[in-house]
Amino acid sequence: MNDNKQQSTAVELGFLVSPEDNWHVWDSAKFGGKPYWLVPEHIPGCDDLKCQFCGKTMCFMMQLYNPCDDNENAYHRSIYIFVCRNQKCLEKGSVCAWRCQLPQKNPYYPEDVDSVVDDKYFDASCSYSPLHYGNHLCSVCGIKATSKCAKCNTYYCSRDHQVAAWKNGHKESCGKDTSGSQGDKDSVCPGVQFPHWEVEIFPEPEPTKEEVLSEQKEKERLQAFSSQKGELRSSLLSTS
Of 140, 55, 61, nearest to 98 (Cα)? Predict the structure, then answer.
């Protein structure tokens, strides 16, 4: 690192808030529901998101928009976190993260991203829609779908998610709409998805002088306690 530069770190805090209606924003943060993919042409499927312990498809937990100012190839960057809903698998570390990134000039978005004001994520004529590249999305979880309901053309990534949707209301609605659902509504399928929240991110406030002094005193107290504990241990060992 350059001697004239000091690497600075900052802590940001995320808070879950109720999402706005029809909130489909790729350049922000969300928890639960379905992911909105930054790179619409290349979307992971079941084989890419399979739990290494139970073999089930992992569940989307959250996405963060985290562009990198120091890397021109990461002018846009999103992080996607998936976890296994099985507690035993989760305790073994069944978590995975996907990173998608793009330079400012790319095939999907205009260089002036502020001009993207309409939500056309599910419009096949739009360059940043997965449907534009022939990708189908699971109506339950939003990852790449490879099969569909024979009666109403609703898409699913797996048999498990088709069964889950059937139990969650698709049984009653099947056949009423044959347009082929791509999961364009952030409805939640219990047991498969986490509830949908928007994540608002704020920088952590700078500590006050009183808080800095209090933290310093606490560190000194713990160091003194640790030192006394070590001296006592040495004394006991020498007399034994």
Answer: 61
